[in-house]
């Protein structure tokens, strides 16, 4: 924003989600220089409809600059044939309350068939989710892979068939 104001750069665009979007996720319910940033930004892309609605409602004067643009990755051309005898569920996120990874454990309690759940990520609630996952029935196998670089995650997808990716945040 400062570079734009000083004329060093002609424009910039940014994304917003989570901590940098919602005031209540900040310790003092305050984001410094928010209006200055909104005045300078060319476009602000929210990653969800909820974020877009939140900003439109709370900052209507910047409505024309705020758009929705989901996160994603370019097509990796991954084409692994699925194993009909194995169902693989993958999740990848930070273990925090807003990511709600614990709900995956709650869901898996009701799955009657054999399933492998593989989770990528770490965070403050990791141990709690791991402990809860120990209570899952024997037909559910669980692997917590920890935090991995994006390149390693893409390699996993290229080498392993995955039936379903789940995100409960």
Residue share in helix:
25-40%
Radius of gyration: 20 Å
Number of strands: 7
- The residue-averaged pLDDT reads 90
Order of helices and strands: HEHEHEEHEHEHE
> How much β-strand is present in the residues?
15-25%
Shape: elongated
Q: End-to-end span in angstroms?
A: 30 Å
Biggest sheet statistics:
4 strands, parallel
Low-confidence stretches: none
Explain the overall architecture:
The protein is α/β, with parallel strands linked by helices. Helix content is 27%, strand content 18%. It has 6 helices and 7 strands, in the order H-E-H-E-H-E-E-H-E-H-E-H-E. The chain has a 4-stranded parallel β-sheet, with no helix packed on it. A 3-stranded parallel β-sheet has the order 1-2-3. The relative contact order is 0.14.
Secondary structure blueprint with pairings:
Elements: H1 2-5, E1 13-16, H2 34-40, E2 43-46, H3 49-58, E3 66-68, E4 88-92, H4 102-108, E5 115-120, H5 126-133, E6 140-146, H6 150-159, E7 164-165
Parallel strand pairs: 1-2, 2-3, 4-5, 4-7, 5-6
Summarize, please.
The chain has 169 residues and is of the alpha/beta class.
């Amino acid at each position: 924003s400062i570079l734009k104001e000083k004329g060093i750069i002609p424009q910039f665009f940014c994304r917003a989600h989570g901590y940098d979007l919602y005031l209540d996720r900040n310790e003092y319910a305050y984001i410094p220089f928010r209006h200055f940033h909104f005045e300078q930004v060319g476009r602000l892309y929210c990653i969800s409809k909820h974020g877009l609605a939140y900003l439109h409602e709370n900052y209507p004067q910047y409505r024309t600059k705020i758009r929705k643009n989901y996160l994603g990755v370019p097509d990796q051309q991954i084409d692994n044939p699925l194993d009909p005898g194995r169902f693989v569920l993958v999740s990848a996120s930070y273990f925090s309350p807003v990511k709600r990874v614990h709900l995956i454990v709650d869901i898996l309690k009701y799955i009657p068939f054999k399933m492998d759940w593989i989770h990528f990520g770490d965070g403050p609630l990791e141990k709690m989710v791991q402990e809860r996952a120990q209570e899952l029935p024997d037909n559910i196998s669980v692997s917590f892979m920890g935090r991995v670089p994006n390149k390693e995650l893409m390699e996993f997808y290229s080498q392993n068939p995955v039936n379903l990716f789940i995100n409960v945040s």
